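Q&A log
Question type: sequence-to-structure
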Amino acid sequence: MANRIELQPSGHQFESKAGENILESALEHGVAFPYGCKNGFCGACKAKVSGDYEYQDEYKPQPLTEEELDEGVVICCKAEAKSDLTIEVEVVKGADEIKVHTMPTKVVKMEKLADDVVRLYLKTPDNESMQFLAGQYIEVLMEDGKRRAFSIANAPHNNDAIELHIRLVEGGYFTPHVFNEMTEKEILRIEGPLGGFYLREDSRNDIVMVAGGTGFAPIKGIIEHAIELGMKQTIHLYWGVRGEKDIYLKELAEQWAAEHENINFVPVLSDAAEGWEGRTGYVHEAVFEDFYDLSGRDLYVAGPPVMVNACKEACTQRKLPEKRFYSDSFEIAGKSEGKK
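Response status: OK
Response body:
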């Protein structure tokens, strides 16, 4: 039997199934409930709870003071609802509200998505988790002090591991290691979450998303989060690459469009082979062919700087307010890979 949970003052409502703790239920429904370790040690998920609950595994709420205990404050990552609950907690609304962590992670899975793109899954320590917003990124910390930034490709509700899409940069410092030497169980030290590119959940505007190459990674996380939240506004996804083989998760994007009537997917090839029947040219040009007036929409752009800059310049002619233009520019610094 599921119990109904309501968060105040945000008004979020969701159900918590038997065996789930309060935090698990919130995250599964796309709610940005604050948390840190997810193991009852740090107290970041504490909140005042009205209703019946029970701590799991004979847990003792050591992070709480006597005063907090008297006021009904609960460690939500260890508490299971036993009735409908009302919880007083401030949900995370922006990147500045999330603590940046430095931690070791383990490579638990590697998957080649294209000739020059590998998907990595990184597992955080059992006693430490990383909360993030859909679309943010992490930095891999190298032994010599260098950093390599990669966008998080999964949504916050699906956070068993951190998903990265890494494109090979010939002559680079880090990505050739990923492609040629890295094996599962390797340890990578990371810092995150970082960045101001994330889904603005309180907006009710229709959304246009533009991805260039592996700029699809943060866009993927954002769309999966929007689906989990049940957002009803129309989402137009444009993904620009050179050839059809570079649309490395084409089936996933097509699945979104097939299963959700509010999602449209438009792949755009700049170097299309004979027989391609879809859109061609530069992806930002395809967007602005379709949208003369962007005044009632939000625009999310992730990919190469030239694409991001072209979109930003064109937006002023398409009546898009600057405050509703969100971007993540994937810099490449010579032979030393930068972001992403």
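Response note: Residues 96-194 form a domain with the Elongation Factor Tu (Ef-tu); domain 3 fold (CATH 2.40.30.10).
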